[in-house]
Amino acid sequence: MQPTVIDLTVASRNPACDNRSVLYHDYPGQHCSIAASLEVVGERWSLLIIRDILRGRRRFDQMQESLGIARNVLTKRLNRLIEADIVERRRYQTGPDRYEYFLTEKGLDLWPVLMAYLGWGDKYCEPETGPPRLIVHKECGGTVNDRRICQKCGRELEVRDAESIPGPA
Ligand SMILES: [Zn+2]
After folding, report:
1. pTM (2 decimals)?
2. Which pLDDT band, with edges at 50, 70 and 90, does 25 fall under?
3. Which of 87, 90, 142, 169 has the fewest CB atoms below 10 angstroms from its CB?
């Protein structure tokens, strides 16, 4: 009997497999950690979901309202992030059951990625009126640059030291 070879490239494109724990391979043949990261967080909406959770939007309805995406799409993306151990779901109410979503340590480790996107977007994509959001050091109120350094006290910050506030734009 011939061994069965499962073609994950084909399986990953089958919508029926979306909620299963299969590895997606959007970049087959790429032996590269950037490609490997994009396999996990390169899907449309994934980083914005992570951004929303970081900003304290932990409930499904809050994220759905913020992102304006279909509920089934948000459900799929959240499930994918949970499978990848980036997001975890915690029940905060029973009867009916309601859940909140939190970032795991693996998810929190994406903060530098988001900060790099933010810095790049501020530099190249935003109007001259200024950035729409600022990241500030909770302790001293200083703004944080794209290298995660507080511009007021000079400290290199971790994700829990900072928060996002509305910018001047
Ligand atoms: Zn500071």
Report:
1. 0.80
2. confident
3. 90
